[in-house]
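Margin note: ligand = copper (II) ion.
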Amino acid sequence: MKVEHFEKAFLSLGALLLLAGLGALLYGSIGAHIHLPGNVGQVDPAVVRTTAPFDQPGLRQVGPNEYEAVILGQTWNFLPSELRVPVGADVRFIGTSADVIHGLNIEGTRVNMMLIPGQISSMTYRFDEPGEHLIICHEYCGAAHHSMFGRVVAVNQLTEGDLVGSGSALAESGVYFDSEGNLVCEDIVGTGTELFQTQGCAGCHSLPSANASGNIGPPLDQVAANAAQRITDASYTSSAETPDDYIRESIMTPAAHVVDGYPNAMPAPQSLSDAEVEVLVQMLLAVSGQ
Ligand code: HEC
Ligand SMILES: [Cu+2]
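Resulting structure:
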């Protein structure tokens, strides 16, 4: 059979392109380890907050130079909201959502996955240089979606508090009620400020003492005086009688009284102990002048 000269050239070019494409694919998956985020399991979203490992989100060491970073997405923040990871180690990000579908994109990396209620997603990444990366929710998830972000900081040397269970704010904030019901906390303002920052409050409220400038909810620098005022307002329909009670109620059952001019958009905290809520209340009273 005689094949035309040009036809031959054209056919070879087609074959070459196919081979080049196949080669690129193989190189990508075998050579450069590029994989789609895997669905690695299921978890019931109704109990995810009490199911390991999501009951204690954060970084764990799982082998020599191997870490697992567990992240829980919820309206509208990531737990933990800041994560420090070691440079040069394999970090396996494991995430899911406690409510609606969220996205998890770590700026400047190829970590990009969906946090889907019920599904666990995972992806491994190695940070080659120290630096800060925003964690962005890139899936519209409701009124305060734009305020949903966190931070991954790649560091040369982890310190003790960076690993779960070794003094991180959530795992062991070191606050509790003693047998007489007294709050035990060495540094209420310090611990309260840390909780304020790690629990997502800072993303929605401004509070200069915590370097917070969120503007979804009311500013909290005058919250003690505002609370005293609100409980005397005619429009106040709930039952708090003191500023303490008002602030506690605002945190535990945000919908009990929705401040005029603001949306009913504050989520009730899910992973705070009663003692931690009390530390937040006392901290807010202290920094707002009471
Ligand atoms: C998604 C945004 C969001 C987050 C996160 C959030 N809040 Fe709010 N917060 C609001 C909004 C909106 C209001 C006003 C509506 C209302 O009263 O429910 C509010 C109201 C309050 C009030 C009452 C303020 C006043 O002037 O009466 C307090 C106190 C408060 N929040 C504390 C906190 C604390 C502490 C946290 C962290 C545990 C937190 N909030 C997390 C949005 C948020
Ligand atoms: Cu979102």
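Residues 176-287 form a domain with the Cytochrome Bc1 Complex; Chain D, domain 2 fold (CATH 1.10.760.10).
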